[in-house]
Specification:
The protein has 63 residues and is an all-alpha fold. The protein has two helices and no strands. It is 78% helix and 0% strand.
Amino acid sequence: MSLLKAIIVAVALFIGLPILLLLAGAAGPIGWIAAAIILPLVVLGVLLWLGWFRRRPDDGPWH
């Protein structure tokens, strides 16, 4: 990923995630539950994807 793409993604997350949390909070209890359950799972999935599925052979042991 180039530096420009990384900056664009970081800015989009910096602005978009708080807006998403505000919208979930405005939706009432269903939104609060969704924000408390779904968003952490999405963050975990993204971290696992970045840390494992985007590995390169020269990153170290595969096991």
